[in-house]
Amino acid sequence: PNDPVEKAPFCKLGNNVLHQRQVFTFSFVRDPLSHFVSGYSEVVSRSMGNFRSSADKCMHRGCFRWLREEDPLDRAKAFVADYVQGRATNHACCEFLTALHVVPQAAFLRSALGGRFGCRVRKIDFIGRLENMTSDWARMNEVVGSSDGATFGNYKQQSKNHGHPKTNAASGNKWRVAMDRLLQDDSQLSASTRDMLCTILNVDNVCFG
Questions:
Q1: Residue 103 gets which letter from DSSP?
Q2: Are 128 and 137 in contact (CB under 8 A)?
Q3: CA distances from 29 to 134, 178, 186 (A)
Q4: What SS3 state is found at 76?
Q5: Least crowded by CB within 10 Å, which of 7, 178, 203, 209?
Q6: Which alpha helices (DSSP H) does the chain contain, by range?
Q7: Mean pLDDT of the chain
Q8: Rg of the Cα atoms in the chain
Q9: Which residues of 100-110 are buried (b: 16+ CB within 10 A; e: fewer)?
Q10: pTM of the model
Q11: Which conformational region is residue 115 in: left (phi greater than 0), alpha (psi within -120 to 50 degrees), or beta?
């Protein structure tokens, strides 16, 4: 009951729907490194925006080291170090700030199936790939017997009012750029840190291909 993730608004709103046996549940996953970079970008944005007070509390408690770094590259390196050592996801006081965004996608879906978010998902009927979003969205319509797209519409219709313009790949924000560069040239990470990160994120490759 004290878990901040279970208090998430989307969990409260979805509770009644997810308890219906006829509900169709789906998810889209992406390349694990791309997911990590995107999640990191959102985490930093939150720590400087709506979750600034929570981030300040986390920093003063010593939960995260990365919050102390002002240089984009130093912050990216510190975040990876915190992440592989469990600091970025294992503190209940900070979990809502970070865990939903950088936890491996397989672990996120497993948690949803286990009722971890306060609204148990009975099953996941369809999993698509973000890299194949347009075609997989159409394929999802076919799965429910709606080849004309009448059930979910097309992806362009559904996505036009959604997204994260301040943190997505097109935003060019310095925090995202720094993490992206760090992971493309990981020579600035220790071998042990790099190997631990790959081990953690590789679960998505194993589960989703």
A1: S
A2: yes
A3: 13, 23, 24
A4: helix
A5: 209
A6: 9-18, 32-47, 52-61, 72-84, 95-102, 105-113, 133-143, 155-159, 174-184, 191-208
A7: 79
A8: 18
A9: bbbbbbbbbbe
A10: 0.80
A11: left
